[in-house]
Specification:
The complex is a heterodimer of chains A (317) and B (271). With 317 residues, chain A is mainly alpha-helical. Chain A contains 14 helices and two strands, in the order ααββαααααααααααα. Chain A has a two-stranded antiparallel ribbon. With 271 residues, chain B is mostly helical. Chain B has a single domain (56-269), classed as MetI-like fold (Orthogonal Bundle). The longest helix of chain B is centred in the first third of the chain and has 34 residues, at 62-95. At the A-B interface, α1, α2, α4, α5 and α6 of A face α1, α3, α4, α5 and α6 of B.
Chain lengths: 317, 271
């Protein structure tokens, strides 16, 4: 080791073992890099990517209709099954829900993020930060459970509508086709509300991060130049916040695409992608079809991430 | 230097922001109320009466304790693994430049960027592929994988603020790499690691989707809760557990906040 050292070094070599090792790493940064990167990359590469790859591989197999065993021959037949009416409906339903949830999350999140970024000072800044972080990090199942309490027929929403003499409004809404149902807890409306509630905090933080980087005097300049608040929002604030919104939408969109617990607990019996995957791999034992179903969100998210990257969304994370 | 910033927000914005925050918090408060209700069979609102008896009932339920113990064990080990791997990765990405840095960040984010069900089913099929029986360790394996990103994010953010000149100064003064790590880097990133670790713990403690696929017969607290949600047996017990879970996850989050709050005032960061 020390033979490699040129005599031009200012300090003498360190005699101790750790010192020698330290010197060696300093002179060979690639070795240091390999030591640092090795464990995490091996872990993620083998356990995560390996599993993911094995799963994708299975989507090219098919299941024998008679024996129920997996036929290990390369085929696109399983993917063709995705295009059957019932399965395609599931995909369309899930993607539509994810898109609507994302839009509404952005609408609710923006004012919170904007207020927190620009107007909240001192103590209020902390209140807003914790007010966003606590719901974001608190238990996912407990949050769903809370909504089961709220949306139940005997729950607080029905009570509130009755007290306000607006029960006809609720009943009218529930009698609507598609979005209605017997009660809110078994309707798409209920599923939608829970999705928005559970994923919306993921939208606030990136938007806030993006807005915090907008200098206040930029907004003032826009007003000085005669821009109305609406114009300032449209031409200055919104374009600058867009990378944050896109970054947040990665979470809301992706999380909605893959969730199977929320529609199972609050929702109608019509399946979402996550539930289809769960049913196919569990009771139906059709791993190839389950794998093919998981490819759908992967492909959609791949395209989404690629677009998001082009819009500079990763800088807002 | 700068023109006055208008101090108060437009009324509409204020209402929208506070309304949004209320939307986030009222459901959580309701959980607390329901833990005390005397109504056993339904989710009736307002509760017909208030009682403390469900706390005693829950305390004496062995299945709740078993699930809680398992959750804590899994979360502790998964957090420890994630702390080591996440910090190593963050150090590599922030302190050195190499080909494929962006790919590494993507690789770390991927387990939470892709829906949990994909991670879950991928791990499950890999375990059955490799003939690994489901056990405590398969749960840990899954949890550690998606906890890495939380530690990584916290550590990377802090590493960026630890100024390079501080490390160079330490080296110039004769410290070797280990001494620099021990006396300069670690004190600077320590609180960020603690915060990341706490968030990783909260994440693992709460995880349900990946666990359903990697858990086999054992149930962690979220799995127990999910079963209660699908087939309710004793609703008030679920209410109490939900409230306790809420309070328990609040603590690490609050702690993580106070630990990273003063991050801007790190020595040397101002140059």
């Amino acid at each position: 080791m020390s033979a490699l050292v040129t005599p031009a070094t200012i300090l003498p070599n360190r005699p101790s073992l750790t010192g020698r090792l330290s010197d060696f790493l300093w002179k060979h940064p690639h070795v240091l890099l390999a030591i640092l990167l090795g464990p995490p990359v091996l872990w993620l590469g083998i356990i995560y990517l390996g599993s993911l790859f094995a799963l994708l591989l299975q989507s090219f197999f098919s299941i024998d209709d008679f024996s129920g065993l997996i036929n290990y021959e390369f085929t696109f037949a399983t993917y063709m099954q995705l295009l059957s009416d019932a399965n395609f409906d599931i995909i369309v339903r899930t993607v539509t829900m994810a898109a609507v949830v994302t839009i509404f999350s952005a609408l609710i999140a923006f004012p919170i993020a904007y207020y927190a970024a620009r107007y909240a000072k001192g103590k209020w800044k902390a209140v807003f930060y914790l007010g966003i972080m606590l719901p974001l990090w608190s238990s996912y199942l407990v949050k769903i459970y809370a909504w089961k309490l709220i949306l139940a027929k005997e729950g607080i929403l029905t009570w509130a509508f009755t007290k306000l003499h607006l029960l006809w409004l609720l009943d009218g809404w529930l009698s609507l086709p598609i979005i209605g149902g017997n009660s809110l807890s078994v309707s798409y409306t209920g599923t939608f509300l829970v999705f928005v509630y559970v994923w919306m905090p993921f939208m606030i933080l990136p938007i806030q991060a993006a807005l915090e980087r907008v200098p206040g005097n930029l907004i003032e300049a826009s007003s000085d130049l005669g821009g109305t608040p609406q114009q300032t929002f449209r031409h200055v604030l919104f374009p600058l916040a867009l990378p944050g919104i896109v970054a947040g939408s990665i979470f809301t969109f992706s999380l909605t695409l893959g969730d199977y617990i929320i529609p199972q607990i609050v929702g109608s019996s019509r399946l979402f992608i996550g539930q289809a995957v769960y049913a196919q791999q569990g009771t139906a034992g059709n791993i190839p079809l389950a794998a093919a179903f998981t490819v759908v969100p992967i492909v959609i998210m791949g395209l989404y991430l690629w677009m998001a990257k082009r819009m500079g969304a990763f800088d807002a994370l | 230097m700068r023109s006055d910033r208008s101090a108060s927000a437009p009324l509409g914005l204020k209402i929208a922001a506070i309304g949004g925050l209320a939307f986030l918090h009222i459901p959580i408060l309701l959980i607390f109320l329901y833990a005390f209700t005397t109504e056993e069979k339904s989710y009736q609102f307002p509760p017909p009466g208030l009682t403390l008896q469900w706390f005693a009932v829950t305390w004496n339920r062995p299945d709740v304790w078993a699930a809680l113990t398992l959750s804590v064990k899994v979360a502790t080990i998964a957090t420890a693994i994630a702390l080591v791997l996440g910090t190593l990765c963050a150090a590599a990405v922030s302190q050195t430049r190499f080909f494929g840095r962006e790919t590494i960040s993507l690789l770390v984010i991927l387990p939470i960027a892709l829906p949990g069900i994909i991670t879950g089913i991928a791990l499950r099929s890999a375990f059955s592929f490799a003939d690994i029986p489901f056990s405590f360790w398969t749960i840990v394996l899954g949890h550690a994988t998606f906890c890495i990103v939380v530690v990584y994010n916290n550590a990377v953010a802090r590493f960026r603020r630890v100024s390079g000149s501080l490390i160079e100064a330490s080296m110039d003064l004769g410290a070797d790499g280990f001494q620099t790590f021990r006396h300069i880097i670690l004190p600077n990133i320590g609180t960020a690691l603690l915060a990341g670790g706490m968030l990783a713990f909260a994440l693992s403690f709460d995880e349900v989707i990946v666990t359903t696929f990697t858990g086999g017969q054992q149930s962690t607290l979220p799995i127990w809760m999910l079963e209660e949600l699908i087939r309710p047996r004793q609703r008030p017990v679920t209410n109490v557990v939900a409230m306790v879970v809420m309070l328990v996850t609040f603590l690490p989050i609050l702690a993580a906040y106070y630990l990273t709050r003063d991050g801007d005032q790190i020595a040397g960061a101002g140059k």
